[in-house]
Amino acid sequence: MKDLLMKRKGQFIIYIIACFMPVIDSLIRMGLFSMIFGVIEKRDIEYFKILVILSIFAALLTGGFHIASRLMRIGFMKNILLDVRKQAFDKIIHISYKDFSKQSKEVYMSHLINDINTFENNFFLNLLNVIYMGGLYIVCLIILYVIDYKLAIAMTLVSIGLFLFASLFSKKTESLQEEVSNQNEQLTVEVANTFNGLEILKLNNIEDKFLDKSLNAINRVEKRKVAFNIFSEQQRSLMMFSSYIVLFGVVIYVAASMNSSNFTTAMFSVQLCSNLVFPLVEILPRMNVIKSSRRIYEKITKQETNHEEEEQGKVPFEFKESIEVQGLNFGYEDKILLKDAHFKLEKGKKYLIKGVSGSGKSTLMKLLSMIYDEYEGKILVDGTDYKTIQEKDFNNQVAFIYQDVFLFEDTMRNNISLYKDISDEIIQVACKKAGLQELIEEKEEGLGTVLSENGKNLSGGQRQRISIARALAKNAEILFVDEGTSALNEDIGKKIEQELLNLECTVVAISHRYYEGVTDQYDYVLELKNGHVETYQAREYFGEVVIC
């Protein structure tokens, strides 16, 4: 948090000055209020006229201070919030895929929206008041030491006592704020699930059930917010009660000392003490809220350092001969998907993963593509352990074709190149192999055609062909294909699978479809049965085994 504020030192200094400006306003009002009692004491009309003129001038001056303070603060606030959003987004963008996939994407959306809004609402309002009230406290204490040092010492001791009292509430405030953040995450996930599956919900007439779930999630968020607000108000109430007791003692002390001071000075001393005690009532609970805001900030922006990962992932990915799997064991909770698996992938060969639904085909592909790394056994590429390979370098040299395609709201060219510097010639070749040529030619802007959100202006088959072209244009060492032709008709699917088999790279594919005369051109089939992986030559497998 300190680095965030000090990133723009000049603006932060201006911000602090702007927050201090209302202190002048408060001192002027205190002085004018004390002078009113002086008028009553002296009963002097000329003194009263001077007070009226000073009051008018003070009103104009403090109004100008208020406007100037607002203008001086707003730029810094805007830039800080922009920095927080950038840091939160940067954390998500640069997180490894393995870590990213550990949470629902809606959780990250909650960080970017709910948590940043919470930070904005809580942090700046409280920081402004802490700086202002802290400044008022310091100035009033200095003046009080000049007027009555005994009273000033007593107020200093009282301040320390109130500070220690408020510190008792600190951890609870932070934990309640974190609970609000966690409930916001759950709400975002619930609402996203409802919206994503709204078509299914309506077709099956179960929208009311999911509406109740969403309402319950909203209710939990609001309960946490109420708990946080009530606890914060309880702090203020207890502090306020303590402050009234202290102020009552001050009034008694000042009344007893009236013989040594005039009425104006006495009232000014009372107001000074009031502005020592009551700002603390606001400062200390607000400091607790600022601490909780700091935890929210760290939660959404701090790059988590995994010391185990720091020791790993330093070796560049080089694939010249083979990827060998030795004694691989993997499962989810109590379900074992792979048991003591042994097999080898040779460079340039084509492999088809087969098995019944739920046998672990997609899991095996994710292990081979470094998405999962919490496994027992070894995966070696040319003798180098997968766990020592740089994930970024690996991802630069592999490509993926998935059944579920995501397309950006951008041009067809950018969706295929993924914003990398790939020549149109390479993209055109990839599009031809993916069966996209006809679509490109019928579009007036060709590759410059802008796709709507996630390609809603395309058919499912067209979207999948863009995904295939995207993978082909990358010219990767290894191509992973998970049901890559499932949305295509028989003829186009057969043609594209033939193109994939003609590639020079290593292909690892999952497919339930069988294209006669094409599918049996794979070099090997990896079949999953009861957690074990058996390797067959494709022609023998499809000649002897029933297609599943």
Walk me through the structure.
- It is a single chain.
- The chain has 548 residues and is α/β, with parallel strands linked by helices.
- The chain folds into two domains: 2-301, ABC transporter type 1, transmembrane domain (ABC transporter transmembrane region fold, Up-down Bundle), CATH 1.20.1560.10; 322-544, Rossmann fold (3-Layer(aba) Sandwich).
- Helices cover 64% and strands 11% of the residues.
- Strands 6-7-8-3-9-10 form a six-stranded mixed beta sheet. Strands 2-1-4-5 form a four-stranded antiparallel beta sheet, with helices on one face.
- A hairpin with a 2-residue loop joins strand 9 (524-529) and strand 10.
- Helix 2 (9-42) packs antiparallel against helix 3 and helix 6 (149-167) runs antiparallel to helix 9.
- The longest helix has 50 residues, at 45-94.
- The two termini are 57 Å apart.
- Mean pLDDT is 81; it is low at 307-311.
- Residues 12-292 form the ABC transmembrane type-1 domain.
- It is found in: Cell membrane.
- GO terms for molecular function: ABC-type transporter activity; ATP binding; ATP hydrolysis activity; ATPase-coupled lipid transmembrane transporter activity.
- InterPro entries: AAA+_ATPase, ABC1_TM_dom, ABC1_TM_sf, ABC_transporter-like_ATP-bd, ABC_transporter-like_CS, P-loop_NTPase, Type_1_exporter.
